[in-house]
Amino acid sequence: MLDLRGRAAHAGTTPMTMRRDAACAAAEIVLAIEARCRSVPDLVGTAGIVRTEAGSVNTVPGQATVSVDIRAPQDDVRDSAVADVLGAAQEICSRRGVALQARPLLKMPATAASPRLSAVWRRALGELHAPAFELPSGAGHDAMCMARCCEQAMLFVRCGNDGISHSPDESLAAEDAGLAVRACLAFFDCHREVFCE
Q1: Same domain, yes or no: 49 and 123
Q2: Residue 167 DSSP SS3
């Protein structure tokens, strides 16, 4: 979380050259996050919270908050992006006369799926004549916690509306739900054949 402190001032009487606008600094930081994370495949960056404190239509914002959520399949890729974004935020705030405080909220290691269990998923899907697509998941799942004590691999079911999730527009076709159930049953059958007998 980035806390920005500029100087609140009157919108009509404060010249543009004298402003220490926390909202403008926040906006520039959001664009820096986007630019940095667009530059690397599978790297994503989000500023899900952007707010000014006690704002009004005729006041230059004196305080702002920006959340920074950066994710990648590899820790070093993520950490490099975080360092670059923090460096950009420091430069932006320094140039604009805005104080910056960075507060880390959460850092989780990237967690790879088990190659062994992924192979079982591929076999199970093959038995159903369903294609297997492998992709990184940037979402934080219970699998990250489970991986501390056991192998993990996941099956994702496609969403309608261009794959959107975490939205009222998220949808799932009944046929896809049925295929997912059959795939899970096939997974357990394949797993038992491969590892339990």
Answers
A1: no
A2: coil
Query: pLDDT tens digits for 171-195?
Result: 999 999 999 999 999 998 887 765 6
DSSP per residue, 68-89? -EEE-SSHHHHHHHHHHHHHHH
Last residue of a domain, one of 70, 102, 134: 102
pTM assigned to the model: 0.81
Angle between helices 174-191 and 115-127 (to 10 degrees): 120
pLDDT tens-digit series, residues 17-67:
999 999 999 999 999 999 999 999 999 999 999 999 877 899 999 999 999
Long-range CB pairs of 106-114 (<8 Å, 24+ gap) are: 108/140, 108/144, 109/75, 109/144, 110/72, 110/73, 110/74, 110/75, 110/78, 111/143, 111/144, 111/147, 111/152, 112/73, 113/143, 113/152, 113/153, 113/154, 114/151, 114/152, 114/153
Same domain, 33 and 73: yes
Q: What CATH number does residue 97 fall under?
A: 3.30.70.360
Instruction: Note down the domain range covering 31.
Output: 2-102
